[in-house]
Design a protein that fits this description.
CATH class of the largest domain: Alpha Beta
CATH architecture of the largest domain: 3-Layer(bba) Sandwich
CATH superfamily of the largest domain: FAD/NAD(P)-binding domain
Number of domains: 2
Shape: elongated
Strand content: 25-35%
Bound molecules: flavin-adenine dinucleotide
Distance between the termini: 40 Å
Length: 335
Amino acid sequence: MSEGVSDITIIGAGPVGLAAAYYAGHRDASVRIVESLGQLGGQVAAVYPEKHVYDVAGHPKILGQKLVDLCVEQGLQFGADVHLDEEVADLTRIGQNGEEVLCLTTKSGRRFLSRALIVTAGHGAFEPRKLALEGIDDWEGRGLHYFVRRKEVFAGKSCVIVGGGDSALDWTLGLQDTAELPITLVHRRERFRALETSVKEARRLEEEGKVRICVTSEVREIRGDGAIEAVTVENTATGELVDVECDALILLLGFHSHLGSIADWGLVLHGKRQILVEPKTMETSLPGVYAAGDVAGYEGKITLISVGFGEAAIAANNAIAAIRGEKVQPKYSTD
Ligand SMILES: Cc1cc2nc3c(=O)[nH]c(=O)nc-3n(C[C@H](O)[C@H](O)[C@H](O)COP(=O)(O)OP(=O)(O)OC[C@H]3O[C@@H](n4cnc5c(N)ncnc54)[C@H](O)[C@@H]3O)c2cc1C
């Protein structure tokens, strides 16, 4: 299936892709967004929608999901054409009505044609790390979770959280007011990687009986009739096995992410995970292909939302100037 030619196709609907959609729409370009997840908002919506973000200019403190909602409102106001659940796989160039256009093909076989591309694919299509337990996928939708998207899902539930990083500690603390207590926190090592203050707070709550911490421990078995009812946790230092009754097993072990087929397009990369760009224009090594946000790399790059917002403006303005054969000029949005 082939779609009509748009001026710009944006790969990835994280905060930076949405900002690029705003800038391109504001300049009256036709914009299409292709996103592999079934939702908008990238890492912010998928990984930390209920955490506060403090360093986005103009927002002293804002919930991740609220920030994403505002990015969506701003980014889609000019009517960008959005395609969710479509992972971009291939890039070719084809002739169309006398002009050469870029042709993206997704894993499901759809084709999207455009005059320029802005790649805002973050760390690439990402998936959560899993436990090496046979049949683990069968528990998905039956008490096994890889994200805490909405706290109310865990209200009144007995939770086992697995992980040693910030997400595991944050949610052990963040679910205290809604989940059944104690929350069990299982980590395979002795020491946590998370922020020291979070670990200290979890230890304090352990003394109050609100958290149960199992270090040097791993989940060995999941049991239940239809849905999760208990897990067996092994202390690998002592060999002791403990049964923990629970309704929810929340695995917060981080993500695998990979650029996937984008890395095979012949783009010059910056390290293994980023596409090299010229920061003055955000152009990649392929003509007509721009990149911004976490996926774009150059000397001194900082992967922050604010930095990505600036890069999105540069990429969109340069892409439009190139398509129209114009000089790049800043255009203010004020009316
Ligand atoms: C726990 C955590 C806390 C953070 N806190 C902060 C903070 O306080 N402040 C801050 O500035 N930054 C923070 N960050 C970093 C911030 O989230 C990222 O810098 C930001 O999300 C980058 O936005 P992006 O749009 O470039 O990429 P992403 O948000 O990663 O979005 C990329 C999108 O592209 C999609 N995609 C990837 N490959 C494909 C493909 N082949 N086809 C179609 N779609 C594809 C992905 O599914 C994803 O939705 C934090 C990150 C984490 C994990």
